[in-house]
Amino acid sequence: MTGAATIDIDTASFKGSIKLNSGLFIDGKWVDPVEPDSIEQVVTTLSIRVPNAESSPYSCTDVDLAATGQKIAAVSLGSGQDAYKTAWGLKCPGTQRARLMQRLADLMERDKEAITALEVLNTGKPFSVAKASDVGGSIQWIRYFAGWADKVQGKTIESSVTKLAHEPYGVVGQIIPWNYPLLMLAWKVGPALATGNCIVMKPSEITPLTALKFSELVAEAGFPPGVFNLITGYGTTVGHAISHHMNISKVAFTGSTLVGRKVLEASAKTNLKVVTLELGGKSPTVIFDDCNFEQTIKWATQAMYGNMGQSCIAGTRIFIQEGIYDRFMEKFTDMVKGLTAATGDPFAATTRHGPQASQIQFDRIMNYIASGKESGATLHIGGERHGTEGYFIQPTIFTDCTPDMKIVREEIFGPVAAVMKFKTEEEVIEAANATEYGLSACVFSENIGRAIRVAHAFESGSTFVNSAQLTEWSMPFGGYKVSGIGREHGEYALATYTQVKAVHVNIGLTI
Ligand SMILES: NC(=O)C1=CN([C@@H]2O[C@H](COP(=O)(O)OP(=O)(O)OC[C@H]3O[C@@H](n4cnc5c(N)ncnc54)[C@H](O)[C@@H]3O)[C@@H](O)[C@H]2O)C=CC1
Ligand code: BAL
């Protein structure tokens, strides 16, 4: 139900009380979900776990913010449509949209510490990382797209005097996951607002807190009511309603390939809404003998274990050329031991590795570890729960992996590396591409000719030479194969939030 919950946080990184609205943010207002006997009915459960600073930081108190039923269609989507027609998109000049977006970014900057604390509660990621990458990155994304808002322009084709207008879709649905709750929101909101669309946003049911806070800042920034709407709830209800809705013209989804297929299917069965999908990955990290050894160790470790391995571009299949295999494994093992030693309370300044985001995810990863052991891979290090409480898993390495193993084929979304040895460039390209996924791939070699050759040979939407995971607001991001459809970021993202209208102007032709 609507109302505000106060979350008291007393940790090494953040001390304070954060007031958070707990309703749905629709048409610029916090509203109660409507009666549960309606046709489109969902149950919204916002349950957060607040570390109890008095005892172990991992013993948690459940705080219920809301648990209720709702019908979303008439209220949220109807008002979104109305707002689009009267107050946004074609009616609101790009310069004004840019100003509002910059104001929103300023407010996020103002509340950066509190937003970070909420994101840590949401996910368990280390505070310093959440502050710099998740919240800092989100602010950058909003600012970057604010810069585009007054530069979305059409063209004129001179020969036939045809004006091409790039128009917003109207109401777009956005369904996002739990691994980067605020960042994924910013990735999607930025281009949608810049191009003048209205948004119906559904955060993951596991991590709604920063999205609620973001909605408050949207209101404070002065966006017209209905431009940004937040509907919390489950995928099978709210997500299902969004993907099937006849008045939503485009859906942008990030999450599992399984659900991505459902969203696409929903489009086919309803109004053929445009669907962009950013899905899973099983990304290769290819390390040649002639790499810069010290740098490569660091990048490969970060690529694998960053965000506790809960990243769609995690470098989970690590291919090491035979000449440096032993030396690399020795140092890589040391890095993992260091990470294990720095595993713990996400609010502690020394923590570099936190828990997995949920019990479901914890169980899923532990099952993959069991499968790795059963399938004959060698458990090199890790493989157990870390500590006795919470969703902590030791950073893990499996060696002697083969392509048929589940831990090599499937996205684990946890801190579990599958290491393989290779001899030749041709062999490793084939092995790296032997996956249904194609989101990201890294190559490490000081032979720049070879590095570029391999980067081009990867069947992947993003490839990195002597680096990893450097996703940036201006660089297109998306998948080959089952890793997705469409691109986010930069000018390419604008194209996925606009449709082109050809206006043919007769300047003298008579019949
Ligand atoms: N590409 C990425 O960044 C992500 C990939 N994943 C992968 O997916 C696996 C499972 O994680 P989940 O949380 O279960 O992902 P998921 O794909 O079920 O959830 C992502 C979002 O989709 C929504 N959703 C779920 N069912 C839906 C439906 N029928 N219609 C519309 N929306 C729906 C969820 O509520 C959430 O907001 C992970 O282990 C990982 O492999 C998960 C999260 C992010
Ligand atoms: N889903 C995009 C960001 C990531 O998971 O790495």
UniProtKB/TrEMBL annotation:
InterPro entries per the UniProt record, alphabetical: Ald_DH/histidinol_DH, Ald_DH_C, Ald_DH_CS_CYS, Ald_DH_CS_GLU, Ald_DH_N, Aldehyde_DH_dom
Q: Does the keyword Oxidoreductase apply?
A: yes
Q: What residues sit in the active site?
A: 278
| GO molecular function annotations of the record | aldehyde dehydrogenase [NAD(P)+] activity
Q: Does the keyword S-adenosyl-L-methionine apply?
A: no
PROSITE patterns (alphabetical): ALDEHYDE_DEHYDR_CYS, ALDEHYDE_DEHYDR_GLU
Domain Aldehyde dehydrogenase residue range list: 83-503
Instruction: Tell me which UniProt keywords the record has, alphabetically.
Output: Oxidoreductase
Give the top-rank taxon of the lineage listed in the UniProt record for this protein. Answer: Eukaryota
Query: What protein family does this chain belong to?
Result: Belongs to the aldehyde dehydrogenase family.
Please identify the protein, giving its name as recorded: Aldehyde dehydrogenase 5
Organism source for this protein? Mycena sanguinolenta
